[in-house]
Amino acid sequence: MSVLVNLIVMLGMLVVVPAGLRLMDAPELDRIRRLWPFLAAPGALALWLPRGLPAAALATVYALGAVALALHAPLRAARTRSAHPTEIALYTALVTPSVAALALVAERSGHELFGFGLGILALTVPHFHFAGFAAALVAGLLCRTTGTPAGRFAALSVPLGTLLVLIGYFIGDWAELAGAVVLTAGMWTVALLTLRTVRTGGPDRTTRALLLTSAAVLVATMVLALSWALGEATGIPHPSLTWMAATHGLGNALGFALCSVLAWRRLQDRTLPEGGTA
To answer: pTM of whole model > 0.85?
Structure first.
């Protein structure tokens, strides 16, 4: 499982996060966008080294970049003075890679942070890249684009669900299950809004295929997330962590996150020549 998880994390670090940052209407992120490959590459290398000081040091480089990115959230909030659901989702996208990066530093150093085992810490890293950063970003973009109650619900429920899942790590499986329910509701709303975007007929064939794939994958992967959280809380049979990494994790990384950021980049490129901004 570790090889698969490492590849998923590398996709998040090296592709999804930098591509997602380019989708934000945030000139203040220009510097960290340029520096991101130099910050993410050491983190990616750390995944393949044995646990210890060298791996932890390389992971720390990535963590410093992720924390610097997170600091843009309060700066953006002070600048915009907005609690609009779109902004809340984008604040979440800015902050969540730092949670993943701190878990990575602890795991690579062999330290059981807050009592969590190294296996859980290793899985926290991809979770907060994809269910955190990518999901919140896409929910925010949909909210800003559609301006509908469903868009606002998605932009609020995805961050709330992510936060509840994080809290559930500390207080128990039932809280984590509540987070999974809220997050699933938000993600399925993202899928619904994505399908509506396809039905408008605006996107080209390739963009439609990417959007359709991301929506379909979300429906399936969040069923798996619910079944796992329910099983953890109640003790009923549920998928193993290895199975979840190979299905839920891989599906969210490739089918949802990667397809979504590629599709939104294509949508952004179509609007820019007309004088709009992303």
So the answer is: yes
